[in-house]
Specification:
Elements (H helix, E strand, L loop, with lengths): L7 H8 L6 H27 L2 E4 L3 E5 L2 H9 L5 E9 L10 H8 L8 H15 L2 E5 L15 E5 L2 E10 L8 H21 L6 E8 L2 H12 L3 H4 L3 E7 L11
Parallel strand pairs: 3-8, 6-7, 7-8
Antiparallel strand pairs: 1-2, 2-3, 4-5, 5-6
């Protein structure tokens, strides 16, 4: 007979052993160990559950946040992390943190995605306690002229470079080929900037803003087939934007 897992302790304790017998004492000890193990399993489930950040500007669903911390803290770790992002205000009406405002006001290298970079930092700051270290133009490289990162920050006691990109397509469906091109370009750029920087960051995060779950799935599939030398020790942080009227994917 198959016993439901939630009734396993009661069934084994009363069905096979008489109360007060030696075997009964063994059974009670075994049951205590099972209850302890059950609490441990419950704690693991709690760690894996979705964590929700709810603020005045936006809400974020965080998946596998303990895994993300492990990826960041351990030099040789790499992998994919998912999150979901919903805005409550237009970007121009958001009350940004002081360092996010600094990022917004600072000159950059001429990219068209300032909003996505600022919100990348604001998300990591609000949800994980990241603190901006240097803006794009403050980071020093030698030799110059290669790929550069968008900003650096300290998080979980680790100095990180953060490169921000947007996975999107204006016409047609975002395909696996599109995802391959995006990841190869950005991850190779991260390897290059890490080799040339004079900063002392431990690793980098590639923050990918995705227009839909389909796009995120394409990025995931492409990542799994990349050579390890391109993946390096970069943490790929995918954020699916579920707000339809967002301007994250509009060029500045």
């Amino acid at each position: 007979m198959r016993v439901p897992q939630e009734h396993l302790q009661t069934y084994e304790g009363s069905r096979f052993f008489a109360p007060g017998s030696t075997n009964g004492k063994v059974a009670r000890k075994a049951n205590r160990n099972r209850r302890k193990n059950a609490r441990t399993r419950q704690n693991v489930k709690l760690r894996r559950r979705t964590v929700l950040y709810l603020g005045e500007n936006f809400a974020v669903k965080l998946f596998s946040d303990f895994k993300f911390q492990r990826f960041v803290e351990n030099f040789n770790e790499r992998g994919l992390i998912y999150s979901q992002f919903e805005t409550f205000r237009h970007f121009n009406d958001m009350n940004l943190s002081l360092l996010a405002q600094k990022l917004l006001d600072s000159p950059n290298a001429g990219g068209n995605s300032v909003e996505s970079e600022v919100l990348s930092y604001e998300l990591l700051h609000r949800c994980y306690g990241a603190r901006l270290a240097k803006t794009e133009m403050e980071v020093v490289y030698f030799p110059e002229g290669g790929s550069i990162t968008d900003y650096t920050c300290e998080m979980f006691g680790t100095l990180l470079g953060v490169s921000v990109t947007r996975a999107m397509k204006y016409k047609g469906d975002f395909t696996l080929e599109d995802a391959n091109k995006l990841l190869n370009k950005k991850l190779n750029g991260i390897v290059n900037s890490t080799q040339n920087t004079l900063e002392k960051w431990s690793k980098q995060i590639l923050h990918v803003w995705a227009t839909s779950h389909h796009v995120a799935n394409m990025v995931t599939q492409a990542y799994r087939h990349l050579p390890t030398d391109i993946q390096s020790n970069t943490v790929v942080f995918i954020t699916v934007v579920v707000t339809s009227n967002t301007t994250i994917f509009c060029n500045s």
